[in-house]
Amino acid sequence: MGSGEIPLKRIVTLCAMLVASPAAAQGIEQTKGSFEDKFRQLDEVLPTANVYRNASGAPGHQYWQQEADYTIETTLDEDRRRSSSRATIRYTNNSPDSLPWLWMQLDQNIFRNDSMAELTDDFGGAGRRGPAVSNASGSQPARLSLEELRRQQTMEDNQFGYDIRSLRLVGGGELKRTVVGTLMRIDLPVALAPGQSVEFTIEWDFNIVEENAVYARSGYEHFPDDPRPGGNDIFLMAQWFPRMVAYSDYEGWHNKEFLGRGEFTLEFGDYDVSITVPDDHIVSSTGVLQNPTQVLTAQQIQRLERARTADAPVFIVTPQEAEANERSGASGMKTWRYSAQNVRDFAWASSRKFAWDAQGHNQPGAENETVMAMSFYPKEGGELWQKYSTAAVVHTMEVYSRFSFDYPYPTAQSVNGPVGGMEYPMITFNGPRTNLNDDGTRTYSLSEKMFLLGVVIHEIGHIYFPMTVNSDERQWTWMDEGINSFLDSIAGYEFDPTLPWSGGIPRDVISYMISDNQVPIMTHSDSVLNIGPNAYTKPSAAYHILRDTVIGRERFDFALKEYARRWKFKRPTPADFFRTIEEASGTDLDWFWRGWFYTTDHVDIALDSIYKLRIDTKNPDIDLRRRREELANEPKRIGVTLNEEQDLPIWVLENPGVRDFYDENDQFTVTPKDRKDYRSFLDGLEPWERATFDRAIREDRNYYVLNFSNKGGLVMPIILGLTFSDGSTERMNIPAEIWRRDSRSVTKLLHFPKGKELTEVVVDPNWETADADIENNYYPRRIIPSRIEAFKSEGSTSRQGRDLMREASE
Questions:
Q1: 572, 600, 628 — which closes off a domain?
Q2: Around 326, how many Cα atoms within 13 Å sit in the side-chain half-sphere?
Q3: Which of 50, 249, 323, 675 has the most C-beta neighbours closer than 10 Å?
């Protein structure tokens, strides 16, 4: 028997072998209490369908959501790094409930020293966007980094949070307010009835945080080495105005405080925002610029119009003009007015350092047939941003629209600043930059290139999810981050598959799924320790498995598009997502949602053994000869082998007088009785049995029984890569339902024509199911490949993280 062959066992009939299989015994054991139904339906977990959200996952016929419209005037005090604003808010109650009060979000209050976020943030800093500062497990001495010391000093030296100067009912008096951390209750003089609206004004100021010092989602960045005395700043303004708290059919007021990790739950509305900044600043903003002639030069307006039909980005503000602005200094203030319809948030950026390029993206037949893709960046962005930012914006819209809907807004913007990556309607903040060399040139590493491409794709993708499909980020980060990570991985591979992308496919999540600190995906956002793998990578990997392995691309893509279409400009919940994907794909996926989203099981399917079976002919002249040949191929007893090596005498050969019948006829000698029993067996078969038996003898197929065990707990399809003795290969996909009666071990029968013999079987040959241990996937087992590598104890920088562009010029 060769080393690449499958072990051989013989049977009289296949039925006899299968009846006695281990799986049958385990089935009996299950009745004694060890049975676990991985395919139990989710009805007991998901909320009951109702008139607002139906059982198919679609909005119900009485679905409603609130509306909040804002008219805002804001002024940026660059020198004091302070914002002063006034807003008129019109809140419309579309719910069936009377509302005696309203709630607002005061997100800037998170930076107060007495905020819940600050008081409950543990020393490891896991809840902040910035780096951890200690070993939270306590296994090492506590340490303070300079970054953390800087943060502590910044918080001590500044007073952050909102200073609300006025809150008044339009046409009425001052409104009573109660501030609760990052929330504020507004008591109404009369309850707001269903279908009614209320208007009120609010005036506020706040000190803008330095993002690099406190690790925020917005703030300013200072450039002290710029030519202008005192340097220059980039301002990224988000969570800058008090926003209405969401009120929904499934929760009422969403009064979970902002702790930093769980992002935002918001209402759609229309915005008219006037932004007053130094007159040499360039402003990027949610919405469409309403007064270009007052803030742009005639040449810049002409460039902007030319960019609408250009095949490549056109500079509206050139890098040379931006650098001239850095050297000039403002002579006054200028107001940029932007308007945005049906958006759930509003953000903007301002700096004299910005160059600005733009290119029109065509969507024939869409509500916005031309979308202006635009990028704003300082000289530090360099060639990296010139080449890739706006190109990535356009590419993202092309890919995401295939999976969802036409890009819904008139602009899509990428802005460079201190925030590594954040998203808002029509505008995103993205961090990567070039490196300045001694000779004044700028270069970048492969990692920085991939970072820019990846973050722009990801953040622009968020304008689809959750800026349009308005899921609740405060509770369920995975609902938008998971879908977005899935789609940005697709977009990345479509942009350039030769780049070493990682982070969104099944093989990327294995280390997290087998770790001790894993929590279920359905864990509340603020309670997750490792938010990246939990809310981004693991759900993305799950969707790849659904698309490529469980459902198939055509049906999964249809279902995802249907989910996006149903919940465009609406607020879906996890149940709406689960139900829609099942209903539109025609696939019962409760086992998948339960395993991937509600447990911490991982994938580890082991192929434990394979039995090779061939039908016994019952003909003694054939079967007994086969058995003699099989015995001859078995290893000799070790004692006999050692005797031969010592050349010891054999008694029966030395004394021929003791030989008898059995020395000439072994146990496989055919006797008349054997032949008589064979004829009796054939005569005793029913006609259908004889026909079946004769066909099996004639075809002489190769049968294999494969024994699998589920070591990780997560049931999955069993994907098999089969290799045969003739060199051919096949792929077989066994649906996950094979585990429905026993989630711990299963046995599968395979059969192939005569001459087609298995030599190797591999479970998950393409690493598509996040199987944690690939070595138990091989049968026969393989020698585990590794390397002898000389190394230093200190790790070296990877090549893709080095600036090879700079090194090549040295």
A1: 600
A2: 24
A3: 249
Dist. CA 335–CA 353, nearest whole Å: 18
- Whether 119 and 178 map to the same domain: the answer is yes
- What burial class does residue 556 get, using C-beta atoms within 10 Å of its C-beta: 0-12 exposed, 13-18 middle, 19+ buried? buried
Contact 764, 777 (CB under 8 A): yes
CB 212 within 8 A of CB 175: no
Residue 42 DSSP class:
G
**Residue 27's closest CA among 748, 744, 741, 743?**
741
Residues 402 and 461 placed together within one structural domain of the fold: yes
Place of tokens 């340097």: 231
Distance of CA 690 to the CA centre of its chain: 57
Taking the C-alpha atoms of 385, 390, 391 and 396 in order, what is their torsion angle to the nearest 10 degrees?
120
Q: Report which DSSP code applies to 475.
A: T
Last residue of a domain, one of 428, 447, 468: 468
Strands of the sheet containing 605-615, edge to edge, are 8-11, 605-615, 702-710, 745-752
**pLDDT tens profile 103-147:** 999 999 999 999 998 888 877 654 455 554 444 455 567 778 888
Query: How many other CB atoms are found less than 10 A from the CB of residue 644?
Result: 11
Query: 202, 166 in Cβ contact below 8 A?
Result: yes
Point out the residues of the chain with pLDDT beneath 50: 1-3, 8-31, 126-127, 132-136, 796
Kindly state whether residues 629 and 687 are assigned to the same domain: yes
* Those residues with Cβ within 8 angstroms of residue 270's Cβ, 6 or more apart along the chain or in another chain: 69, 70, 339, 340, 341, 342, 343
Say which residue the tokens 């609902």 belong to. Answer: 479
Q: Are residues 564 and 636 in the same domain?
A: no
Q: Give the Å distances, CA to CA, from 539 to 343, 446, 478, 485.
A: 26, 27, 7, 8
Give the model's pLDDT for residue 409. 98
Local structure of residue 421 (DSSP, 8 states): E
- What CA dihedral angle connects 184, 190, 195 and 201, to 10 degrees? -50
The single-letter DSSP state of residue 25 is: H
Cα 390 from Cα 221, distance rounded (Å): 22
Range of the domain at 386: 299-333+356-468
Tracing tokens 């969507």 back to the chain, one arrives at 363
Angle CA 184–189–191, to nearest 5: 85
CB atoms within 10 A of CB 95: 18
- Domains held by the chain: number: 5
Q: Is residue 21 part of a domain?
A: no
Please tell me the predicted confidence (pLDDT) of residue 579.
97
Residue 201: strand pairing partners = 88, 168
Q: What pLDDT is recorded for position 445?
A: 94
Say what the pLDDT of residue 18 is.
35
Per-residue confidence (pLDDT) for residue 145, from 0 to 100: 82
Q: What pLDDT is stored for residue 799 in this prediction? A: 66
Determine the pLDDT at residue 615. 86
What tokens appear for 623 in the block? Answer: 């079967």
CA distance 244 to 93: 12
pLDDT of residue 399: 98
Instruction: Give Cα 608 distance to the centre of its chain.
Output: 32
Q: Are residues 79 and 54 in the same domain?
A: no
Please tell me the predicted confidence (pLDDT) of residue 804. Answer: 66
Specify the CATH number for the domain of residue 777.
Answer: 2.60.40
| Cβ atoms of 236 and 211 closer than 8 Å | yes
Token match 């562009």: residue?
805
Whether 24 is in a domain gets the answer no
Instruction: Name residue, tokens 């208007």.
Output: 199
Q: Are 432 and 458 in contact (CB under 8 A)?
A: no
Helix (H, G, I), strand (E, B) or coil at 318: coil
